[in-house]
Amino acid sequence: MASQYDLTTKIIPYLDRHLVFPLLSFLSEHEIFPAEELIKAQYELATNTHMVDYIASLYQQIHPGEEFSAEFLKKREDAVATNARLSEETDPVMSVIQNPEVAQNLRQDKLQNFNYLKETFGVTPEQIIALYNMGQFQFSIGAYSAAADYLYHFRILYTQNDLLLSAQYGKLASEILSGEWDKALDELNKLKDFIESGLPLPTINAPATANTPGSAALTQLQARTWLMHWSLFVYFNAEDGRSALLETFLNSTYLNTMQTSCPWLLRYLAAASIISRKGTASASRTVRTSLQTIVKIIQAEQYQYSDPITTFLTDVYVDFDFEQAQKSLKDAETVLDSDFFLWEFKGEFLENARYVVSEAYCRIHQRIDIADLSARLNLSPTEGEKWIVNLIRDSDSRSTLAGDAKIDLEQNVISTSKPSVPVYQSIIEKTKGLAFRTQVLGAAMAKRASGDTTVDGEGVEKENVGGSGGKGRRGGGKPPPAAAAQS
Amino acid sequence: MSRFFRAADDTDTESESEEEELLTSDEEEEEEVPQQVAKSKPTGMARFLRTGSGDEDSSSSSSEEEESDEDDDDEKGSETSDDEKTVVKSARDKRVEEMEACGKASDNALKVGDWNSVGNEFDKLGRLVERQKNLQEPVPTLFIRQLVNLDKSIANAAAKDKDSKKKMNAAAARALATLKQKVKRALKDNEEDVKAFNEDPNAFESMYQAAVAALAPAVKPIKVVKPPPEEGEEENDTFTTVGKAGKVYNFTATSVMKNLAAVHESRGRKNTDRVENITILQKLLEVAETPYSRISVLLALIAARFDYNTAVTAYMPVEMWLSTQKNVDELITVVASNPDYVVQEVVTVEYDPLEERTPQTENGPVLIRGSIISSLDRLDEEFTKSLQNIDPHGTEYVDRLKHSMGLYKTICCAQLYFVSKNHSDAIARAIMRRVEQIYSKPDAVVQALENGAVPALADLKLSATIPTLASCDSTKNLVHTLCVKLYNTDNSFLRTRAILCHIYHYAFHNEFYTARDMLFMSRLGDSIYNADVGTQVLYNRAVVQLGLCAFRIGLIKEAHSALHDIFATQRVKELLAQGMHQQKYGSTMSPEQERAERARQLPFHLHVNTELLEAAFLVSSMLVEIPLLASIDNEEAKRKAVSKPFRRLLDFADRQVFTGPPESTRDHIMQASKALQDGQWEKARDLILGIKIWSLMPEEKSVKEMLGRRIQEEGLRTYLFTNSAYYTTLSIPLLAATFSLPQKAVTSIISRMIWSDELSASLDYVPSTFDGAVSGEKLPVVIFHRVELTRLQQLAQTLSDKVNTLVENNEKALDAKLGGSDGARGGPWADGEKRVGGAGEGEGGRRERPSRGGRGGRGGSAGRGARFAQGLGNRMDGASTRRAQ
């Protein structure tokens, strides 16, 4: 069961070697797969790194009592030697940079910085690249924070594009592995901007596709896929990461990426949207309406991916089959238990899942038997009652339960009354934006008439464009400020 | 011109014509019998007799000779029949006669002084002589004499004219002037002949006769006087006769190249007997021994066969096609077994086609000009053309269809050969042909085709391999492998076609999601308008097949939206190239357009059954639209919401005063729709399942089951929409019983309707009031909270909607005017538009999907008809050029 829904094998191809170690050790802790195989896998994984001591310990676990091969010993020596060589190369630069006087003189402009260093201290481009090599080496021996440090400096000073992306990835991985979530989040956003900036991305591991048509799009797709996988580490650890995840993943480009190349990430999207259900007071509109969107996507992708978590959502929102949802929720529990990213959020998830169920249930039913609802939520009647009371009390103004649900203890039911929206109100809603929109039109026309043909780059971001969908930006002129304020 | 120059000129022309002789001698052998040959054509004699009567004298000696030949012939001649004699005779004699007639007419006109008609006659004569020259026949004396005469007459006339200029009218003067010019030119062209003639007309005459009699291969009599002796000797040595049709050919291995060159020479000329050329080449093929000559002959033969039909519309006779196919096969076998010979379209090295060439190691393989892939293309096209022209309901069609097996074999062999030679362009084209052969066929047919092809592949004994059904397990994999190869080519035309075939194939095998994803990710919908008509048709076919596929697996909404676009155009048959454009008022097609469209039609066996298509579309329309119709309560909104094609039919059915029992598929569906509206789902189901056309679907049973279920569900929804106004509560068990659905399913359907605000209601339990119910048992019910709108409120709502649309339209109009970019389309996606190869990882195309699911059947339907590729008819010019890429 747990191994059936295990995503580790799907995720690993999109991760860095070093990022896989935590995943594997998590798996061995939870005993989902045979321990021996896992250790072997860890060993295989480690052999290509320079973490010699770690390799040694793994080797001994697999082959207790055996001697290390000569090759291995040589590797160890090599590693030490490389370390010495690289630190020699980078020392001058590092000493220069760490000089407080230099730090003060550094500016925003990379080129200027580099020229400054070159003129004042004789720093050569080779030395800068040595920083990168050092960072990479430090990373490969497992000294992540040192790697982060080196890469940070490298990035400040390096002026070309080619190694920058790699350095970005390295920095992000280092931050993730050293557990600096805030910094990692920062790095993640930088990397995202970098990918979205539309600069030609250096191909990561697909030289074969370099010249085929659409290779640029393909590289971008790859980069996005990687980014999404790596971001899981950050989003499920950083504070407020879940809503950040929703913001990112629900962005249409990332949704497309997910649907195209990694539908399994739907699990995390679904889970994140359930988890952040309650704390949505501060979140933006996209997060609040996320569940509906996600359900649609889950439905669309059902043919290529489903697990108990996504099934739970379809059970509730598509089939309204609460019994089935209850079962799926139970399955989802076990899945959560064995998921590296989600296990910490099990409690929150269940709590919010209950909320999701009860909300849907209450909206459809007029009178709800508390015992019945409790059963639906996997709770005992008394627990259930308490829970529901809390639910009604805590529910904020957006919820359907707000204010119009009452508990009738005599019959042990909750009754909800749904006042239908008055016609007047709906008409007012509909016509609200019209005056403003018309004014915008008028202004644009006036601008055009006055001969100013340059379309204002800012445009007017409109909140409510109506059902046509996807039309966010219009190339109209700016409205007269006074008019805008009035409407 | 000085004497000296003239002499130089003479030698020049002489050497030239000698070369010509070499080239053309074979041809002359075909037409005219060399003197040395014991047996000779009777033609010659007959002509002499006739010319003798026409001209003032003829050489009796030659005619006697001919007579004796004739006797000879009769004695021996078992194989020559009289019919053939006359046939052959007339062709030559006619020309001579024509010339004579011309000459006479010219003389007459001359006598009268009608310069105009003299000019015309002279032109005619000139043309005839030109033709004579083309055929390598000697220029008759008649012409020269005529020329000299004319020259004199003109000189006279001019002299006379000087005296009495006034007599001649302007037109005649002009005619005379032009004629003078022409004669001058002709005189110059035939200077030598004229000179010879002037010196001694009689000698010249006899010389000509000798030339004809000798039938020596020379254009100009001068050369005829001294026929090249070596030629004669050679022919004496090696001559063999083949007496078919009374003609004698020199078919030996050594002379193959000569004969071939002769055929090449005549190709494309007027008055070439194509059938004869083909026969000659066939004979040559029999005697050709070396690979080089075989390849050359085969190339020529294949080309000659394709030349057989000059008309574009006519198709190659089946027999001819079969032998062509055999030749192509043979050609491939020969080149495959002789890797030192390579057939290429472009050969930079100049070579003498007459020379036998053998591979020399230092020069690499012998390159021969020609194109196997074009032959393959033509072969396939001819096959399609014949299928287009054969009545699809006769046995002939079926017989013809069987030949596709051979064609497929040839294509596979060619592909294998190209792979072994690594001709990337040719490989791609061959693969495309192969994919087009199999993409729309059921597995069993593909299996048969493959079984036919595989042994032939093994026979080629090439080290390269190509994917076969056996190596790919299933047709799906086979098509996939082949298409992936095509995605990697540079040719975007082939890529587009490949992905469309691929989509079609997936849809055909009920892999709806894969096919749909490919269609979206390829983003073809945006660019298909720029494609050629053939590709557009393929696109339409793919979309339609996708719709059918969705229908088969029960995705009614998807089926509806896929099929809606094409049905909205009302030109389904035309868009699928399965029928001609129906001429309507105002729009007429030019004959060229009509012909082009006729050429585009798909052969019958590839057709998508339009009746089935229509049934699928209308049934899915019914299932989508009827509940929708019921959910909307004011008339105006109804009119807007429902898609036109369905609405039109429904209205038509409504207007009918009497409705008889349903006959056509359409009748069935319309009556079912009405029954569904009335809540009689059982009647609706029976009507729908009674449609016979479903039996065409392989999954008939499951489709019917699915339809029954869907009718129950949609019946329930319709019922709830229609009747919610008249009830405050409805018992769920009762609903479940009425619609034969499990109670759970009913609850689920109602819940979904409540959740999506389609139905203003909620679920509740009331104490059961049924007799016999256990007291205290609760009965689940639906409680409706319906708010009746007053007239004023309704109007206010409509008004607000309208104002909204108005503003939106204004914004759109302004956007278009200002050219403001549509934000949704810009950004980093601009580069992502292109399709990415392989499994189509282009992510951009997915954008539509989430919104699609959300819109359901309705929102998306309006105005999307335009998205269908309809550019038939009016785009043909561009298309034909593009096709040539």
From TrEMBL, chain A:
Please, which domain of life does this record's source organism belong to?
A: Eukaryota
Q: Which SMART domains match?
A: eIF3_N
Question: Segment Disordered: which positions?
Answer: 448-487
What family is it from? Answer: Belongs to the eIF-3 subunit E family.
Q: Does the keyword Phosphoprotein apply?
A: no
Q: What is the lineage of its organism?
A: Eukaryota, Fungi, Dikarya, Basidiomycota, Agaricomycotina
Q: Which HAMAP family match?
A: eIF3e
Name of the gene encoding the protein in the UniProt record: INT6
Q: Which residues form the PCI domain?
A: 234-415
Oligomer status and interactors: Component of the eukaryotic translation initiation factor 3 (eIF-3) complex.
> Which molecular-function annotation in GO is an example for this chain?
translation initiation factor activity
Any one GO CC term of this protein is: eukaryotic 43S preinitiation complex
Q: Which GO terms describe its biological process?
A: formation of cytoplasmic translation initiation complex
Keywords, A to Z, come to: Cytoplasm, Initiation factor, Protein biosynthesis
Q: What name appears for this protein in its UniProt entry? A: Eukaryotic translation initiation factor 3 subunit E
Entry function:
Component of the eukaryotic translation initiation factor 3 (eIF-3) complex, which is involved in protein synthesis of a specialized repertoire of mRNAs and, together with other initiation factors, stimulates binding of mRNA and methionyl-tRNAi to the 40S ribosome. The eIF-3 complex specifically targets and initiates translation of a subset of mRNAs involved in cell proliferation.
Compositional bias annotation for Pro residues: 478-487
What InterPro entries does the annotation carry?
eIF3e (IPR016650), eIF3e_N (IPR019010), PCI_dom (IPR000717), WH_DNA-bd_sf (IPR036390)
Main subcellular location of this protein, as a coarse class: cytoplasm
Query: What organism is listed for this UniProt entry?
Result: Tulasnella calospora MUT 4182
Automatic annotation (TrEMBL), chain B:
Q: Compositionally biased, Gly residues: which spans? A: 853-863
One Gene Ontology MF term: translation initiation factor activity
- Indicate, by first and last residue, each region the UniProt record lists as having compositional bias (Basic and acidic residues): 77-93
A cellular component term from Gene Ontology for this protein is:
eukaryotic translation initiation factor 3 complex
Any one biological process term the GO annotation gives: formation of cytoplasmic translation initiation complex
PROSITE patterns with a match to the protein in the record: PCI
Q: Tell me which stretches of the chain form a coiled coil.
A: 169-200
Region span, Disordered: 1-93, 816-885
Q: Which UniProt keywords apply?
A: Coiled coil, Cytoplasm, Initiation factor, Protein biosynthesis
Q: Where in the cell is it found?
A: Cytoplasm
Q: What region holds the PCI domain? A: 604-777
In terms of domain of life, where is this protein from? Eukaryota
What is this protein's function? Component of the eukaryotic translation initiation factor 3 (eIF-3) complex, which is involved in protein synthesis of a specialized repertoire of mRNAs and, together with other initiation factors, stimulates binding of mRNA and methionyl-tRNAi to the 40S ribosome. The eIF-3 complex specifically targets and initiates translation of a subset of mRNAs involved in cell proliferation.
Q: How does it assemble?
A: Component of the eukaryotic translation initiation factor 3 (eIF-3) complex.
Q: What is this protein called?
A: Eukaryotic translation initiation factor 3 subunit C
Where does this protein come from, organism-wise?
Answer: Tulasnella calospora MUT 4182
**In the UniProt record, what gene is named as encoding this protein?**
NIP1
